[in-house]
Design brief:
This protein is of the alpha+beta class. Helix content is about 25%, strand content about 30%. It is built from two helices and nine strands; from the N terminus they run ββββββαβαββ. α1 runs parallel beside α2. The protein starts with a strand and ends with a strand. Belongs to the RutC family. This is RidA family protein.
């Protein structure tokens, strides 16, 4: 196993890594819509979703991967009323064939974030 770490994504706010590799798999911890340069959450669901996906792209880049390598995504959302907004931004960043995905409404996210996204990617060998 190897740890994935970059200054271009928010630092872990607990006892976990930004991501880990295991064989051909890259597993990223959930990414909030935090701007890594300020450490603050972006304002609103659209900005948080966009930033969360940008953080994911930045982490994948450290493993020489892109969103095209993502095979599974999990989206945690604090209010399913925002599902369409999140889904539209998500769809604009991924391409066919889309990764498998789960989306669940949760009672609360760290820092009172509106969305958190985690992914599993695979290295093509």
């Amino acid at each position: 196993m190897k740890r994935i770490n970059t200054d271009n994504a928010p630092k872990a706010i607990g006892p976990y890594s930004q991501g880990m590799t295991s064989g051909n798999l890259v597993l990223l911890s959930g990414q909030l819509g935090i701007d890594p340069s300020t450490g603050k959450l972006q304002e609103g669901i659209e900005a948080q979703t966009t930033q969360s996906l940008q953080n994911i792209e930045n982490l994948l880049k450290t493993a020489d991967l892109t969103l095209e390598n993502v095979v599974k995504a999990t989206v945690f959302i604090s209010d399913l009323e925002n599902f369409t907004k999140v889904n539209d931004i998500y769809a604009s960043r991924f391409a066919e064939p889309y990764p498998a995905r789960s989306c669940v409404e949760v009672a609360r996210l760290p820092m009172d974030a509106l969305v958190e996204i985690e992914v599993i990617a695979e290295k093509n060998e």
